[in-house]
Design a protein that fits this description.
By secondary structure, this protein is α/β, with parallel strands linked by helices. The protein has twelve helices and six strands. The protein has two domains: 62-196; 198-349, no CATH class. Strands 1-2-3-4-6-5 form a six-stranded mixed sheet. It binds zinc ion.
Length: 349
C-alpha cells in the first residue's frame, strides 16, 4: 500500500474515536506527512520518467504506434507487435509497480519505447526479426541489479537439403534498475537484433554502442578521433585487441577502449559508405544464410567478405592496416571454413 493511501485510512478512522486516541492518530498523521515531501518527489520523478519515455523525440527515436495488449486482471504481462513484457514475481511488491495501474502505465510506456527502437533498427539496419522478443523485468536478476542477459533460442533442421539453425525466439532478462537507464536499455535491446547473426563480438558491440550513443543519448563510450596511431592497440602478436574480445563478461583494462574503438570503426564504415551500408551488409548475409550454418561465431574475415561486397571494394587492406588478422575470402572459402569449424566443434567432448 502506498503512503498516501495509508494517510487517507488514518484520517477516515478519526471519527468516533476517544480524544486521546485522536491525538495519537494526529501524531501519526504528522509523522506520515513528513514523508509527504519524499513521496511527492518520488511521484514527480516517476512522472518525469514516464514523460521522457513517452517523448520519443528526446530519445531521438521516432514515436511508434503499436498495438499494445495488457493481460487482465493484474497487468503482469503485456504484448505489443514485436515484444512481450513480463514482470517477474520479485517485482510484485516493488513500490513503483505494486498496483495494477502502475504496471499498466509502465508496460504501455516500455512497449511503446521498444517498438520505436524496433522501427529504428529496421530503418538503420534492415532488421526485421520474425519472432517476438520476450522481455522479463526483475528486481534482482541472478542475484544482482547490474547484469542483463540476452538468450537466443534456436533449433536445427533441414531446409532445401541443408542442415540449418533457425531462431525460435529471443529472451531478455533485465533488472529493473538497468532497464530504467536509457543507454543500457538501448544497448542490450540492440543485441536482441544482432545476436541471430552470430557476428564477431567487436562488430555487434560496435553496433550496440552506436545505437546507445546516437539514438538513446547514452554516450558513455565516445568515439576516438582516429582508428590509427596511438588509438590503435595490439596484442603481443601485433593483432588488433578487438579480435580476441570475449564480450561483456570479458572485463579488464581494455574494456573501455574496446567499446570505444569498435564504435569508432562501425561508425567510420557507415560514414564512408553511406547510411544504407549496413542494410546492404545484412541483406547480403540474409540472402546467403551462411550464418545459419555456423555453429560458432563468425570470424572477422567472414564478416569482411560481406562488408566488401556491400562497399563495392575489397576492405581486406583497410582491416589489415588496422592490424586485424584477416584475409580475402571467396564464398567457397567460407563454406569450407564453416565445415571445418563445425566439425571441430562436434569433435569437442
Ligand atoms: Zn554489449
Amino acid at each position: 500500500m502506498k503512503r498516501r493511501n495509508r494517510l487517507l485510512f488514518i484520517i477516515k478512522v478519526f471519527d468516533g474515536l476517544p480524544r486521546t486516541t485522536t491525538w495519537v492518530m494526529v501524531l501519526i498523521a504528522v509523522l506520515v506527512c513528513n514523508g509527504c515531501t519524499a513521496l511527492k518527489e518520488a511521484q514527480q520523478r516517476r512522472e518525469q520518467r514516464i514523460l521522457e519515455e513517452r517523448n520519443a523525440s528526446s530519445l531521438m527515436l521516432r514515436p511508434a504506434n503499436p498495438t499494445i495488449k495488457i493481460k487482465e486482471p493484474d497487468a503482469l504481462y503485456a504484448t505489443s507487435d514485436h515484444y512481450t513484457l513480463t514482470f517477474a514475481k520479485d517485482l510484485y511488491e516493488h513500490p513503483e509497480l505494486d498496483s495494477i495501474e502502475e504496471r499498466e502505465t509502465f508496460a504501455r510506456s516500455a512497449l511503446g519505447y521498444m517498438e520505436s527502437l524496433y522501427d529504428a533498427m529496421n530503418r538503420l539496419f534492415g532488421f526485421q526479426p520474425k519472432h517476438k522478443i520476450h522481455v522479463t523485468l526483475h528486481d534482482l536478476y541472478q542475484g544482482t541489479r547490474l547484469a542483463a542477459t540476452t538468450t537466443t533460442n534456436y533449433r536445427y533442421g533441414f531446409q532445401n537439403g541443408r542442415y540449418l539453425k533457425f531462431v525460435n525466439g529471443i529472451k531478455m532478462d533485465f533488472p529493473l534498475a538497468m532497464y530504467e537507464k536509457h543507454g543500457v536499455r538501448a544497448h542490450e535491446l540492440t543485441h536482441a537484433f544482432t545476436n541471430i547473426y552470430f557476428l564477431p563480438v567487436w562488430f555487434s558491440e560496435g553496433i550496440a554502442v552506436l545505437i546507445q550513443t546516437e539514438y538513446a543519448q547514452g554516450g558513455t563510450h565516445p568515439k576516438f578521433d582516429s582508428l590509427k596511431g596511438t588509438y590503435l592497440r595490439v596484442d603481443l602478436d601485433g593483432v588488433n585487441q578487438l579480435e580476441n574480445w570475449g564480450g561483456h563478461l570479458d572485463g579488464g583494462p581494455l574494456t573501455q577502449w574496446r567499446y570505444r574503438y569498435s564504435y569508432t570503426l562501425v561508425s567510420e564504415l557507415r560514414e564512408r559508405y553511406g547510411n544504407d551500408f549496413y542494410i546492404k551488409v545484412f541483406e547480403l548475409m540474409e540472402a546467403d544464410a551462411l550464418h545459419q550454418r555456423l555453429e560458432g561465431k563468425m570470424r572477422t574475415s567472414f564478416l569482411v567478405y560481406y562488408l566488401s561486397k556491400a562497399a563495392g571494394e575489397d576492405l581486406v587492406p583497410f582491416f589489415q592496416e588496422l592490424q586485424f588478422k584477416v584475409r580475402k575470402l571467396t564464398k567457397e572459402d567460407i563454406l569450407k571454413q564453416i565445415e571445418e569449424m563445425n566439425s571441430q566443434i562436434r569433435r569437442q567432448p
